[in-house]
């Protein structure tokens, strides 16, 4: 009887122990019910995809349009040129791992790397290489005008104004004077010349900002949220381009939405919906050409998607 | 004698005089059967494919945050935990590993929290930056936070098998269940696959 009691006691203890373990750590049904994307009214989509250019590159990083509407794509260790109809025209060899590019008024191609800029002539010859901006620099945007070159340094959270030889003229968008600075949870910062000043995407604040030439903030629009007129996630939009007249085309990550906003910041329409991109797409680069076409460089599929306004 | 191998046998009371009872006979049979079974298991283990010097680990670049790590590990809670590479984090107050896509305001309420066990703590660093701490004792490895962080943030949160918990099964339950084939054996010299770049 003693032996049975002892055995029974041990068995009971073991069962109780197991039961206790299970009670302390119950299996949790894992279900993320928070996946409902905000549907986009089809009536808002006023662009249609008219062409896709397959680059065949291993990695793509930047897109720009020249004065004659040639489409330039940076990736791998080259800049490729495509005709407006998507036909490949040529390429120039550049140093590996470019991050973005822009075309100057004289046709020179400015190619940015993490910490420096290299300028190539239209013939592909290296014209100049600017000095390094330091280890912290992370150039993700570039805009060239007749007067100057603007560099978007996401690493330094600043916009640099340089002359065409690469000499730094001013540091812009620094925090201070009531301006919160550039909040960049991830390295997505673009800059575009606009009306004597420039525009930037302050992604951490979910807004597009307009600044005077001296860097003073003059206007902004944008708010955080899943709704189609807002910018989703922690840091969006990731890139933008300017249409003639001041309308702004933006792209987001997370929910990859390309949208057009009027110059007053009101949503004008949707260019492309998330359904057109595969999961995990982030860092779509934008450009617009002289025919108001929106060009989106999809880094996941390595293609250029061309969107035109519906008739 | 097989029965002496059982832990209880050494300190068992002495046998009553007068021969073996029916209960003794049955117990001896059970003990023998247990030892044979244990021996068979040892033989199987000895013949298992060589896995010496390796442990299981998740490739965060392949992980799809399906949630099966939370439910298919032999351990409960799972040996899979969310880990956080702070060097990649954006230190957002509006963290999508922490907060639901759809929420009421940006406050840390139960309704707004993405984590089912409240394992993520938001700690103020300096305006406007916040640091997310993972409380491993609460984390069940469901990957819901990872999905939010990967989708909207920098992907600084991801799942790893913690080797202070993992019992290194020959056949890993979550590796067998993983739909993305993201779990494989790696050298014990490099037991973790840590992210070092932006998503």
Terminal-residue CA separation of chain B: 62 Å
Oligomer classification: heterodimer
Number of helices of chain B: 4
How many individual domains of chain A?
Answer: 1
> At the third CATH level, what is the topology name of chain A?
Neuraminidase
* Beta-strand residue percentage of chain A: 35-45%
Unreliable stretches covering 5 or more consecutive residues of chain B:
1-19, 35-50
The level of helicity of chain B is 10-25%
The coarse silhouette of chain A is: globular
Give me the side-by-side strand order of the main sheet of chain A: 1-24-23-22
Distance between the ends of chain A: 93 Å
Task: Please tell me the overall pLDDT of chain A.
Answer: 90
CATH architecture of chain A: 6 Propeller
Total strand count of chain B, please? Answer: 6
Percentage of residues in DSSP E strands of chain B:
15-25%
| Helix content class of chain A | under 10%
Q: Unreliable segments of chain A (pLDDT under 50, ≥5 consecutive)?
A: 14-29
Give helix and strand order of chain A, one letter per element, not per position: HEEEEEEEEEEEEEEEEEEEEEEEE
* Major pleated sheet of chain A: 4 strands, antiparallel
Tally of DSSP helical segments of chain A: 1
Brief rundown of the structure:
The complex is a heterodimer of chains A (311) and B (199). By secondary structure, chain A is mainly β. Helices cover 7% and strands 39% of the residues of chain A.
Description:
The complex is a heterodimer of chains A (about 300) and B (about 200). With about 300 residues, chain A is mainly beta. Chain A has a single domain (about 40-310), classed as TolB, C-terminal domain (Neuraminidase, 6 Propeller), CATH 2.120.10. Chain A has one helix and 24 strands. In chain A, the strands form six sheets. A four-stranded antiparallel beta sheet of chain A has the order 1-24-23-22, with no helix packed on it. A four-stranded antiparallel beta sheet of chain A has the order 2-3-4-5, with no helix packed on it. The termini of chain A are far apart. Mean pLDDT of chain A is about 90; it is low at about 15-30. Chain B has about 200 residues and is of the alpha+beta class. Chain B has a domain at about 55-185. Chain B contains four helices and six strands; from the N terminus they run αβαβββαβαβ. Chain B has helices at about 20-45, 70, 145-150, 175, and strands spanning about 55-60, 80-85, 120-125, 130-135, 155-160, 185. A two-stranded antiparallel sheet of chain B has the order 1-6. In chain B, strands 2-5 form a two-stranded antiparallel ribbon. The longest helix of chain B has 26 residues, at about 20-45. The radius of gyration of chain B is 24 Å and the shape is globular. The model of chain B is unreliable at about 1-20 and about 35-50 (pLDDT under 50). Chains A and B meet through helix 1 of A and helix 2 and helix 3 of B.
